[in-house]
Specification:
Blueprint: H1 4-13, E1 19-22, H2 24-37, E2 41-46, H3 53-62, E3 65-68, H4 71-79, E4 87-89, H5 96-104, E5 109-112, H6 115-124, E6 129-133, E7 141-143, H7 153-165, E8 169-174, E9 179-181, H8 187-203, E10 210-212, H9 228-243, E11 249-252, H10 256-259, E12 263-273, E13 283-286, E14 306-308, E15 315-321, E16 330-340, E17 348-352, E18 373-376
Parallel strand pairs: 1-18, 2-3, 2-11, 3-4, 5-6, 6-8, 8-10, 10-11, 13-15
Antiparallel strand pairs: 1-12, 7-9, 12-13, 12-17, 14-17, 15-16
Pathway: Amine and polyamine biosynthesis; putrescine biosynthesis via L-ornithine pathway; putrescine from L-ornithine: step 1/1
GO molecular function: ornithine decarboxylase activity
GO cellular component, one term: cytoplasm
Length: 377
């Protein structure tokens, strides 16, 4: 949402071109909500959601850990004040030299999902702790993360046995129910799978210690979403149901849920047109699109709240598109977006809920447009 602090920034600063403004106080509130909702789980902020130094420094100061997808993100977390023991190299696809670099920096917790990744870690980070990612179906997620990452539970058992044989510490399992998961019960089946992996390893004398329950916690776009407390209650109930009194260490990796609602993008209407005299729908072109940071509108998956100063006027559905010379740069066409009939060229629009997965998705210079500017206040 547009907080008063963000609104004041736009009133006084008037930056030229599209820009993102993130309110740190909203991030602080979100961290506190996760801490209260799952007090016995360690928070590992997903750095990829928004790696702005001011956000990382705030979270480091609050005691957060960090889920990193690359050596560059690991270095960002360290620069922000995190110690290596508060960092997980959570990407299952890593170059061996990057594993070695992370290990040299003191990182000792790595994600795997196959035998080949285990072999790389055993060579580049001997003795390190590893956790194996298990596939989930992602049903109910608006931005699924299945197929590319993880393996079936039976294979996870084999991978962790292999890691143990190669001298690594088989530490636990992980899963990700899918980004923007709106079903609080989604963690139940995944925790059931995790418990089965724990049980199978125990039979072979390998005692896992940790379940990384991933991210997936949503932010509010056009529809209301459950509270952090509701997710916490459902997840704790599922943990108790499957693990009984022997609860493992648990980790959560909020990204979108930590910073999504803290950011607002200011954009401008560049053009409003029709494709024929009898076209029933207007095309509204903004100065930002898929290549400027709104990549998650791909397949119209994420529908952002869009506000204008004319929202009290009559609305009609429009095709919403970006400014680049690429036909893929259309955000909403199958499910058109209602905008004021009175909207005109040069009007300012605010795109809310854009604190996550925008700045780092923006192209460097596609069509000569500069990367999305970002301000953290």
């Amino acid at each position: 949402m547009t907080t008063e602090r963000i609104a004041e920034f736009f009133r006084t600063r008037r930056p030229d071109g599209p820009c993102l403004v993130v309110d740190r106080e909203v991030v602080r509130d979100n961290y506190t909500a996760f801490r209260r909702a799952l007090p016995n789980s360690d928070i590992f902020y997903a750095v990829k959601a928004n790696p702005a130094p001011q956000i990382l420094e705030l979270l480091a100061g609050l005691g957060s850990n960090f889920d990193c997808a690359s050596v560059a993100e690991i270095e960002m977390a360290l620069e922000a004040g995190a110690t290596p023991d508060r960092i997980s190299f959570g990407n299952t696809i890593k170059k061996e030299r990057d594993i070695a670099r992370a290990h040299a920096l003191g990182v000792n917790l790595f994600a795997v999902d196959c035998h080949e990744e285990v072999e790389k870690i055993s060579r580049a980070a001997p003795g390190a702790r590893v956790f194996c990612r298990v596939l989930t179906d992602g049903e109910g997620a608006e931005w699924p993360l299945s197929r590319k990452f993880g393996c079936v539970p039976a294979m996870a058992v084999d991978v962790l046995v292999y890691a143990h044989q190669l001298g690594l510490a088989s530490y636990g399992v992980s899963f990700h129910v899918g980004s923007q998961m709106t079903k609080v019960e989604a963690w139940d089946a995944a925790l059931s799978d995790a418990k089965r992996v724990f049980a199978q390893l125990a039979k072979q004398g390998i005692h896992l210690q940790m379940v990384n329950m991933g991210g997936g916690f949503p932010t509010k776009y056009l529809r209301d979403v459950p509270t952090a407390e509701a997710y916490g209650q459902a997840i704790f109930a599922a943990l108790s149901r499957h693990f009984g009194n022997q609860l493992p260490r648990t980790i959560i990796e909020p990204g979108r849920g930590m910073v999504g609602n803290a950011g607002v993008i200011k954009s401008e209407v560049v053009l409003i047109s029709k494709k024929s005299d009898d076209d029933k729908h207007r095309w509204v072109f903004l100065d930002i699109g898929k290549f400027g940071g709104l990549a998650e509108t791909m397949d119209e998956a994420i529908r952002y709240p869009i506000r204008t100063e004319r929202d009290d006027d009559e609305m009609e559905p429009c095709v919403l598109a970006g400014p680049t010379c690429d036909s893929a740069d259309v955000m909403y066409e199958k499910n058109m977006y209602p905008l004021p009939i009175s909207l005109t060229i040069g009007d300012e629009v605010l795109i809310e809920g854009t604190g996550a997965y925008t700045t780092t998705y923006a192209s460097v210079a596609f069509n000569g447009f500069e990367p999305l500017k970002s301000y953290v206040i």
